Amino acid sequence: MGDTPHVFNVIEAxxxxxxxxxxxxxxxxxxxxxxxxxxxxxxxxxxxxLAEEYQGKFVLAKINSDEQKNLAEQNGVRSLPTIKVFYKxxxxxxxxxxxxxxxxxxxxxxxxxxxSDKIRDKGLAEIKNGDEEKGLELLIKAVEMxxxxxxxxLDLAKGYISVGNAIKATETLETLPYNLRSSDEAEKMNAxxxxxxxxxxxxxxxxxxxLIIKHPDDLEARYQLGASKVLADDNEAALKQFxxxxxxxxxxRDDAGLNGILEVFKLLGAxxxxxxxxxxxxxxxxx
Length: 287
Prior knowledge:
Elements (H helix, E strand, L loop, with lengths): L6 E3 L5 H7 L6 E6 L4 H17 L4 E6 L4 H6 L7 E6 L2 E7 L4 H11 L3 H14 L3 H14 L4 H13 L3 H9 L3 H4 L2 H16 L5 H10 L4 H13 L3 H14 L7 H13 L4 H14 L1
Parallel strand pairs: 1-3, 2-3
Antiparallel strand pairs: 2-4, 4-5
Helix pairs in contact: 5-6, 5-7, 6-7, 7-8, 7-10, 8-10, 10-12, 10-14, 11-12, 12-13, 12-14, 13-14, 13-15
């Protein structure tokens, strides 16, 4: 089959455009094949047929591994045929060898956009724009429409966190398979849940600040204020409080000051300037 809007050949020079850029709007299934490979000749017609049938819900990019050795090597291809799925600029799935058509259909269905994806995107946009309640309603609706899609539940947990519902966020995360429960994103959510729990029924920031001025050694007030500052995205103020707790009493809440700092590091990422700054402060304090 020659090039069509849904099936086309790719060379190294146009990989970024035809695969990575294309994957921003729909999944791109990349078929690494070779002319001498019998299984490749069996699999390719199945993929081409499905690409035409799905009419753009995914596209098929074919790469001749003999002619495009650099692309095969860069993508870690060690056997043929190898199929890699790209979405939003990243590899999200892969399989090798000939698979039956029903299995391939199931893989395709896992990655193509559904109505629940559109509702999820609207929900996340509402949360980003400040309407957390409306966003949460949409995320709940998306999960109800497609309960088998675990990544929707991950976003739902994020929605519960945005409205401060730690119990529902925890319950939602606990329904996920281990690989998602232990993912970086889930770990960040667990950190936020711990800060939400720390601020339940706590005084306002103004009251906490007044209390700390009056009683500088009130570490519970400092911890609650630090947690509240994290939830308000004022991470520098939070880190100052947690560091002060460390300096006062490492035994408080089983080293809650250090643990609070490490949770904020997790949320910000290793390259954030605040993380670098407070790593230096930690090193000076600990050594």
